[in-house]
Amino acid sequence: MQTKTGPFLRSTLTIEKIMYDVLLALLPAVIAGVVFFGHSALVVLLLSTLSAVITEAIFLRAPFTVKGILGDGSALVTGLLVGLILPPTTAWWIPVLGSFLAISLVKLAFGGIGHNIFNPALGARAILLLAFTSQLVKFTVPFDTITAATPLLTSRSFSWSLVWGNVGGSIGETSVIAILLGAIYLLYKGHINWRIPVGYVGSAFALALLLGLDPWYTITAGGLLFAAAFMATDMVTSPVTPVGELLFGIGCGVLTIVIRQFTPFPEGVTFAVLTMNALAPILESITIPTIFGVSLSKKTRVQTGVVAASVFVVLIGILFSINIIRPTVTPIISNNEHLPITEMLGSADFEVVYEDGVTYYLTRDNEGDPAEVVLIASQGGFNAPIEFLLVLDNKHEIQDIKILDHKEDPGLGELITRDSFLRQFVGLDQNSPFGLGEDIQGITGATISSRALASGVNKAFDKFADTFYPQEGSSLLTDGTYKGKANSFGGVLEVEVDVSSGKISRVEVTKHTDTPGISDGAFAKVPGRIVDQNETKVDAVSGATVTSDAIMKAVQNALDSASTDQVDQSSAGFEIAVDDGIYQGSAKGFGGNFVMDVTVKEGKITELQVVESNETPFIADSALKKLLPAILEAQGPVDTISGATVTSKAVFEAIENALGAGEDTSESTQSQKSFNISVGDGVYQGSAKGFGGDLVIEVTIKSGEITELEIVESKETPFIAEGAFKRLIPAIIEAQGPVDMISGATVTSNAVMEALENAISIKEAR
Amino acid sequence: MIAKTFPRGGGEIPHRKAATESKPIVAMPAPSVVVIPLIQHIGAICEPLVSIGDKVKMGQKIGEGKQYICAPVHSSVSGKVVAIEERPSLNGNKVLSIVIENDEKDEPISGESNKKILKLSPEAMCKTVREAGIVGMGGAGFPTHVKFQPPMPVDTVLINGAECEPYLTCDHRLMVEKAAEMVGGLLAIMRATGAANGIVCIEDNKPDAIAVVTEAIKDHPELSVEALQVRYPQGAEKQLIKAVLDKEVPSGCLPCESGCIVNNVHTAIAVYEALTEGKASYERVVTVSGGSVVDPRNVLVRIGTSIKELLDFCGGLLGEPGVIISGGPMTGQEVTSLEGPVVKALSGILALSKEEAFFDKNLPCIRCTLCVQACPMGLTPNLLGEYSSKGMFKNAEKLNIDDCIECALCSYVCPAKRALITWIIDGKAGLAAERAKEKVS
Prior knowledge:
The complex is a heterodimer.
Chain A (H helix, E strand, L loop, with lengths): L14 H23 L1 H21 L6 H5 L3 H11 L8 H15 L12 H12 L1 H4 L2 E2 L6 E2 L2 H4 L5 H5 L11 H14 L5 H16 L4 H6 L3 H8 L10 H21 L6 H18 L11 H28 L15 H5 L5 E5 L2 E7 L5 E11 L4 E8 L5 E8 L13 H4 L24 H22 L11 E8 L4 E9 L2 E9 L8 H14 L11 H25 L11 E8 L4 E9 L2 E9 L6 H16 L10 H27 L10 E8 L4 E9 L2 E9 L6 H16 L10 H20 L1
Antiparallel strand pairs in A: 1-2, 3-4, 4-5, 5-6, 6-7, 8-9, 9-10, 11-12, 12-13, 14-15, 15-16
Helix pairs in contact in A: 1-2, 1-4, 1-10, 2-4, 2-5, 4-5, 4-6, 5-6, 6-15, 10-13, 11-13, 11-14, 14-15, 20-21
Chain B lengths: L25 E2 L5 E5 L9 E2 L6 E2 L4 E4 L8 E2 L4 E10 L5 E9 L19 H10 L12 H4 L8 E6 L8 H8 L1 H15 L3 E7 L3 H10 L6 E6 L8 H9 L14 E5 H13 L5 E7 L7 E6 L4 H7 L9 E4 L6 E2 L13 E5 L17 H5 L6 H9 L3 H6 L10 H5 L6 H21 L1
Helix pairs in contact in B: 1-4, 3-5, 4-7, 10-13
């Protein structure tokens, strides 16, 4: 006989009781879901639960009784969880399939309860999300049936409706109150402990702070809180050790935010928790607790302390550096809200230009050219125009891009509003190709919308150039007849273009091998459109796009040759304003400073020598070998050497600097502006708008000179502004006039000088 | 003031002491035949000192071993040796035993009465205790005289009156009824070991015992009573020391490493009786309880009495019991042979009804972490159990399986009713066997 083994008393807690307690804890979320989303939510929940229970009963060949079919209740929990993380409007077969997959593939295939590696409900959701994306992201507004997006995609800031839960989202994930009620019950019952939820929510909160997101929004929107309470705490798939649990929670939180912010997925919870599920055994094995009777040695304690302290210091460092890199968080704008143009431009002194369907808000530089620009343009999207905003810095590189309005499909085209997609535009300029797969990676499921935005931005740049730099347009064409070629559908296509009084007056296709009939429309209409609009980019003829494009390209080629001729004729050569001699000039190249000696004899450049170069060896060398003789021959800038564009440009610039050097210095001493001090000795105050608000300075004038300058009030970014002040003030006093801006603190520098001028001019006015 | 307890793990379990905790100890008449096993302790087995046909007196030494860790055995009745043979013990294993027929005279061996115990030298005390065959009566059965000579100086002697196992009340009743003897025993142990302090540790669900013992020590400033929180396993040696003295006995070490020794209530009384009356360890108090026992009570019973007779003395059984246990329900073992005799370390015989008794179901582990949270030693019982049951003893060793105190709380809290502690105990044995094998090769 087998001896019975102790203990002969057991706690009354059973797996069934735990499962029914979890069901009870889910009840508030179920009620909230049904209240907010109506009977469709109830149907989803019933279907998912039923499917899970039936699947398990069939696979386990359970006896055909109520108790046998319900089993230990774990299938009920899994089924309900599957339903709660689905949108209420999903198709009926989604919850059925989801629960089937959760039970069969994610749970039973691994050996059933206790043996599954991944959380069954989340595993099923991951499969559904990848296979039937649109079914998983069609959310509705509560009390309504209008399809809307989850708040994760539409807003970025906290609101109390997130707490109550009357926002779009998955059935069980929207109501913070309901989730907290359930979590508190489970904590009270001891089925979960604080470590995973606190680690999860806490790390997400902290990371959101670090990244400059709204932390309260981050933890209340989407499925984060639901997962922290019910998914990550799943006993089977989380570590058993206390420290392991904490690390598990923290990992979930960090991954969720990382996935939300830096990948095209709108929600990071599913993959974050599943990833941590896979890591749970490792976390467990490295966090086996110190047992009773084993005290940590002093060395170990010191080591642990040092490691913890350094991690802390590094985190604080990251916090600071992120704050410094991103001094302000640009508030997100929507169509009806105030656009913080002033903050974007860093100046309240901007002009507004509306031209060709694009609105520009811009500041001007000293030469009157646009400096910093905010432009709002639109481009046809999948459903309706996408309205977007670009912030360009003074080099006209994209600093920021925002979608203001769009009607793209929720969860699909809508994904273009993700930061991870938009961030790709930052740093691009008018020379960028804006091609999908080139500099912009399109979003799977949102290709058309991605392409629309990319080409919209491209067109906006074209229009910007047309509007503000018209001399570069086609109006400079020299009269004459030009020929051009381009590849078309059937082969090479040739055109002849007449230019008279600087405009395209005739376009004729002289040769083509395209299919008659199909391409006829293009031949008939495109040349006319080009002449009418005096532009090479016109609307293509539908059904004959390739041919249309080829015609346009050929015309462009023809005109390009026209412009090149013109360049040769005109005085695009270097302006040699210096006497004979050797002049040095420098410019910024690819690798750093680039210095050249230029020898001028009888008004001509006779010799070019590179004095200092930090360019890439080989590439630059061969480029220079070709470039320098060409320059000597042309006595001016020539075509850049491909692969060494930057270096080529640096060469031109250095030569220009060398030739203009003498002139420059004389001019700069003559023309250096100084403040017009028309006030008597005394202390004066003046103010101006800075980056963060009003900036007030006090200036002391003694015998007509600025002797002292003090910042009285400043709301500028700490560190940055202070450093700027330190360098700026002595410089101004020395120059007795405006000085170069401190880079990184341009706005502040400007404000200081403006305030100074104000201080002096106020008195003047009196 | 909040009662002290150990800080890590532990849990609340039912007490179920009501049936016997207020019942005075009843002496059971000696049975007609006693079976005295030659080993009732941890250590080496004794050699019989008598042969078949010999007449023996009550308290006469009948078995003795030469090894240091060994305790002699004594006859619990006067009568005639009828057999020296292997008899089943409580768990069914055969043990060499001396069978004595009772002549019903209870003729005691002439013991030296010595009321001046405080004048005995520590060495003499140690010798007397060994001669009396005293072993730890809380359940472990470790020869007490060994504890009298700790390898390093100790300053505190703890009397373990926690009695944290459900049902058991023998220590409780002894503290109430024999507090003076217990205090005498404590003072003797302190003198023998050179310890300056003595503390009686009692869980605060025994207020009457606390009151009586407090009264009994009032003339001894070096003694104190510590009321402890009711929390299992409060009575485990290491947890008791942690709770009372806030010292952690280092892993793999004896309590004397922390400057203290721990003795059971009943052991202290036996020590006192041995030193004052020369009484050998031939009888003890056993709690007979459980839902299947007609008249649960605390019984003073002779060593060698069969379990069947003991149960009969308590009115017999109500129908078929779920399980009969020797010791407490948490750490005790199933009694498979009712012919088996009462031994020195037996604290209780429990006949649990089918409704009371729970057994392993071994459902899959759902990794709920309750066992990890409950383990008073900070172990990970789910992993230890898993490794042990699969024979992966070396993996279990890395997770400190040797530190398990076998309190069985992990199995108690397990919602899947897994046989965690059984696997772990097997794993410890398996690991020891593997180590022995390695030593040989």
